[in-house]
C-alpha cells in the first residue's frame, strides 16, 4: 500500500540538474551555491559533450581535440531554479578572481553575457558578493555526481574531484594533496 505525502522528501532532488549556458543574446544571472568551481577537459564527440578519459580516451584516440569546461551550481535570479552553469576556461578567470578575493564562490552573484551577441562570442561575467545572512541559498549539489548522471557515467568515477587525471596537456599550479575519503580509498583535493 502506498504512503502518500503532500511534499517530496528533501533527498528527492537527486543529481539531476539542468545545465545552463550563456545565451547568444541576453544574460544569465544567479547566485552561486557551491564554494568552488569544478572543471575538466571535454570533447565534443558522437554529437555530445563528454569528459576526456585521459590515457584511454576514445575521443583522443580518434583525434578529437579537447577543451576545458567548468561548472558552478547556482540559483537563477529569473526562476529560482537550482542549476549548473557551464563555462569555458576564459570565463573561469572571473570566478577565480572572485574566489581569491572572498575565499569562496558561495554567495557570489553573477551576470554572464556575450560581448558581441554571437553564438561563440566571448563571455564576460560581472560578480559581486552578497551578505550571506540576507541570502537563503540551498545546499550545493555534488557537481561531479550530477555531471556523471548527465553523461551516463558510473557514480564511482566522481571520486577524483579536482584532479587532472594525468592528462598531459593540463597543468595546475595550485598544490594538490591526497586525502582519505572514509572508505579506504583516496580522493584528491586542490588547495
Mean pLDDT: 80
- Estimate what percentage of residues fall within beta strands: 25-35%
Number of helices: 3
Spatial extent as radius of gyration: 18 Å
Counting structural domains, the number is 1
Judged by helices, strands and strand pairing, the structural class is alpha+beta
Please provide the ordered H/E string of secondary-structure elements: EEEEHEEHEEHEE
Number of strands: 10
Distance, first to last CA: 50 Å
List keywords for this structure.
single chain; about 190 residues; alpha+beta; eight-stranded mixed beta sheet; two-stranded antiparallel sheet; 3 helices; 10 strands; disordered C terminus
Give the SSE layout.
Layout (H helix, E strand, L loop, with lengths): L18 E2 L6 E6 L5 E8 L2 E4 L6 H4 L5 E10 L5 E7 H14 L5 E7 L8 E7 L13 H9 L24 E5 L5 E5 L1
Parallel strand pairs: 1-6
Antiparallel strand pairs: 2-5, 2-7, 3-4, 3-5, 5-6, 7-8, 9-10
Amino acid at each position: 500500500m502506498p504512503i502518500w505525502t503532500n511534499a517530496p522528501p528533501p533527498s528527492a532532488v537527486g543529481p539531476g540538474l539542468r545545465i545552463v549556458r550563456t545565451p547568444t543574446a541576453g544574460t544569465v544571472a544567479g547566485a552561486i551555491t557551491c564554494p568552488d568551481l569544478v572543471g575538466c577537459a571535454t570533447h565534443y564527440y558522437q554529437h555530445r559533450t563528454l569528459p576526456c578519459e585521459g590515457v584511454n580516451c576514445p575521443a583522443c584516440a580518434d583525434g578529437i581535440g579537447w577543451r576545458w569546461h567548468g561548472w558552478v551550481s547556482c540559483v537563477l535570479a529569473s526562476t529560482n531554479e537550482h542549476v549548473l552553469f557551464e563555462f569555458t576556461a576564459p570565463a573561469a578567470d572571473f570566478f577565480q578572481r572572485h574566489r581569491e578575493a572572498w575565499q569562496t564562490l558561495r554567495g557570489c552573484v553573477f551576470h554572464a553575457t556575450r560581448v558581441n551577441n554571437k553564438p561563440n562570442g566571448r563571455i564576460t561575467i560581472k560578480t559581486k558578493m552578497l551578505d550571506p545572512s540576507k541570502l537563503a541559498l540551498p545546499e550545493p549539489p555534488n557537481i561531479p555526481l550530477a555531471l556523471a548522471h548527465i553523461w551516463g557515467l558510473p557514480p564511482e568515477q566522481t571520486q577524483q574531484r579536482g584532479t587532472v587525471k594525468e592528462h598531459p596537456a593540463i597543468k595546475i599550479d595550485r598544490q594538490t594533496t591526497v586525502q582519505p575519503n572514509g572508505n579506504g580509498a583516496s580522493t584528491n583535493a586542490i588547495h
